[in-house]
Amino acid sequence: MSESTAPLGAADRGEQSPLPAYGLPQTPREMSRDTSWDTPWETDVRDWIALLKPRVMSLVVFTGAIGLLVAPGQLNPVLALTAVLCIAVAAGACGAINMWYDRDIDAVMRRTRSRPIPAGRIEPRAALSYGVTLAVGSVIMMFLAVNIAAAAVLALSIAFYVFVYTVWLKRRTPQNIVIGGAAGAFPAVVGWAAVTGSVDLVPLVLFSIVFFWTPPHFWSLALYANDDYRRAGVPMLPVVAGAKETRRQIVIYTLLLIPFSLAPWCIGFSGPVYGIAALVLDAGFLVCALRVLRDRQDAAGVSLTGDAPARASFRYSIAYLFLLFAALAVDRLVG
Fold this sequence. Notes:
Oligomer: single chain
Shape: flat
Structural class: mainly alpha
Helix content: over 70%
């Protein structure tokens, strides 16, 4: 479940800009899509959904659902679905608020400039209101329908992502991803608390898995998106410390992740199904990290392969977290 930049322009302040989409050209995907049959309502719906960062949300919701499934005790199926929905809405709210706050840097980054706000399709104030409404609504619903512990952890996760990561860390330090990784680690704890009404050792272990998984996952992306972050003035690790140091840190954090991924097995919470799956997945992740480290590069550390190992590691890291948490659920079901 991210520094100083140029001052916000008129469009960034929610005013009308004389140039649509900040004067930026459309992406090939936008130009190739025939919009002649789109109604304004249809276009708006897609943009409002895009504000929620649905791809990011899917992983957050999955880890939250697994936390709920493996927790001891039972929760009414309707309440369980409500809890997962609240996690999803809260994650989407964070995405919307993040896009509102980062609209200035999104406008200059190639991979984000076609997002709804920098492209001029949604007004910044509307996006902020949308995100805040969803955030408050998700916490209130979790409190009323489930329990106060889950609502409190959910509120903490939203506050951490918005104020600690987005506002404070992302533009100020290359450790933004390390510390900010906690924001994406909360959902499993929320799911656990929804069932038990408390937080103990196991959900903290699940939190730690996602926390230590985040740096090698995101730094792999940052390696091949380095030019974008440099252009936007975001101090991601490759921008500040260089590609060579980033590759070394990817290996270090992958090694740090391994004992935490094995911890559910070691403390007796899970059985051999999870343990074997974790070992196999850890071996694959370490191989990917070592390939990133050994990528062919010039004297400055710039990849000569188009960062192919980093791209592969990024893709593997997503599959890794899905499969690791899925293995935990399967182990609990068959154990």
